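Quick one: structure for this chain?
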Amino acid sequence: MTETRPACLSVSIALLHYPVYDRNRRVVATAVTNLDLHDIARLARTYGLFRYFVVTPVAEQQMLAERVRSHWQDGWGGSYNPTRREAFELLRVMPGLEDVLEELRDIHGRPARIVATGAGDRENAVTGKALREMIRDDEGPFLILFGTGWGMTDEVFDRADLVLEPIKGPGDYNHLSVRAAAAIIIDRLLGER
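Got it. Here's what it folds into:
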C-alpha cells in the first residue's frame, strides 16, 4: 500500500509538442520522448501535482505516449516498479491545449489560469516568488506550460494569463532541457522552503 500523496490539486503542468518553433522559427510538432514522459511524470508525482499533460496532435506520437503509459500503468512495468506506476497515474495524453483546458474546466468547475514558461525575457513576466504566493493564496486551478523544440509560439504566450520569468544562471548561457527547467521551476514554486 502506498502512502497518501501530498497534493497540490490546483496545479497541473503540460508539455507542449505543438505549437512550438523549430530553430528557424517555423511552427512544428516535435517528437515525444521517453525521457520526458518518465522524468516529468516522476516530477509531477514528487510535488503532488494534479495532472501532467503531454500535448501532441500527431496520432502516432499519441499512441507512443499511451503505449509507454500503459506499460507502466497496466502492464508488467506497473508490477515491476510500483513507484513508476504511481507517477504515470498523473499522465494524460491530449491532442491540443484546448482539450487540456476543457478537461481542467470540467473537473474544477472554472477555467485554469495559464502560466507560460520560456527561456526568453518577456515584458510583464512574474517572478517565481510572486507566482508561488498566487498558488498558495488562490484556489486555482493553474496550468503551467512547458514547450519543446525552440519554445512555444507567440500565440501560446499571448493566450497565457501569466508569463513566468526565465531561469537565469550566473552567465549568459540559457539552454536547459525541458526536464531540467520543469524541475527547477516546480521546486521553486512548490518545494519546501
